[in-house]
Amino acid sequence: MRPSHSQDRGPLTARTSAPAGAGDRALGPALTPAGAPYEQTGPTGTVGTSGMRIDAEHRADGIVHARVSGELDLSSAPDLRKWIHEELAAPARLVLDLDGVDFLGSAGLSVLAELSEQAAVSRLSWALVAGSRVVLRPLEATGLAEQIPVHTDVDTAVLAV
To answer: Which end of the chain is more exposed for a tag (fewer CB within 10 A), N or C?
Structure first.
């Protein structure tokens, strides 16, 4: 068992009762809310979840820059999926910055694969920032690095979208 490195285990303040499988025209049925609890605070769209945190900035150029930190695993991946579903409506431009992620599990990889598939059929332009081995290694081992627009820094990712 690996040690927990969670950075935000505060109280959960909101719950959803949306059924798993309820479709979204913008992102498709694969990115539907999972009904997981989440907390939303602050002017920049900060979301704290079990072992993961998302700090989103809606930039003046129309790009949503989401910085994910903590663990992206079985317990937090549904929260990332839910955030993507609720925050992004087509057409959208997203820079998903995973440089703060200290663990990327198969459930997190699944969310990234779903996002990649849905972006191909919707009007979502996105790029992933992954400069650490913690994120790059699982992407490379699964072949997702070949399918996902991966960049080593935010500036390059912003230019790509």
So the answer is: N
From the CB of residue 147, how many other CB atoms can be counted at a distance below 10 Å?
A: 14
3-state SS assignment for residue 96: strand
Tokens representing residue 1 in the block: 């068992």
Q: Please write the tens of the pLDDT for every residue from 96-108.
A: 999 999 999 999 9
Q: With CA atoms as reference, report the closest residue to 112 among 154, 140, 70, 89.
A: 140
Give the model confidence (pLDDT) of 58-81 as tens digits: 999 999 999 999 999 999 999 999
Is 107 in contact with 77 (CB distance < 8 Å)? yes
Q: Cβ atoms within 10 A of the Cβ of 3, count?
A: 6
pTM for the predicted model, two decimal places:
0.71
Helices (H), 47-148: 77-87, 106-121, 133-142, 144-147
Assess contact for 76 and 50: CB atoms under 8 A.
yes
Whole-angstrom distance, CA of residue 32 vs CA of residue 99? 25
